[in-house]
Write a structure and sequence with these properties.
Strand order of the largest sheet: 1-2
Strand content: 5-15%
Number of domains: 1
Number of strands: 2
Distance between the termini: 18 Å
Radius of gyration: 15 Å
Structural class: mainly alpha
Largest sheet: 2 strands, antiparallel
CATH topology: Multidrug-efflux Transporter Regulator, Chain: A, Domain 2
Number of helices: 5
CATH architecture: Orthogonal Bundle
């Protein structure tokens, strides 16, 4: 199943959105998620949390929200990290599809 097409916008609008994005350092992300930097490094090493491709030391606010969801599934429901990552990926896809449907 393919993902829905992205909304078309001007290149300058996309560039402005990237510039407006707030980036967090690894320490700031760990603090925002309530975990230690060492635990964050472990999750990054497992590929469950990914930094901004252009700047490996920075993370987006969306990444922080994803990390909090992942940790909540692990802590509250006892889902292992790989399972939690799959669930979060599916939830994000559902949210993107619902947003696309609302704008169609």
């Amino acid at each position: 199943m393919s993902t829905p097409p992205r909304m078309r916008g001007s290149a300058s609008a996309a560039a402005a959105a990237v510039r407006a994005e707030v980036y967090l350092s690894a320490d700031e992300l760990a603090a925002a998620a309530g975990i230690t930097p060492a635990r964050l490094a472990r999750l990054i090493g497992l590929g469950l949390v990914e930094p901004v491709p252009q700047d490996p030391g920075r993370f987006t606010a969306r990444t922080a929200a994803r990390l909090r969801r992942l940790l909540r599934l692990h802590r509250d429901l006892g889902v292992n990290f790989v399972g939690a990552a799959i669930i979060v990926d599916l939830l994000e896809r559902l949210e993107e599809n619902e947003a696309w449907i609302r704008t169609a």
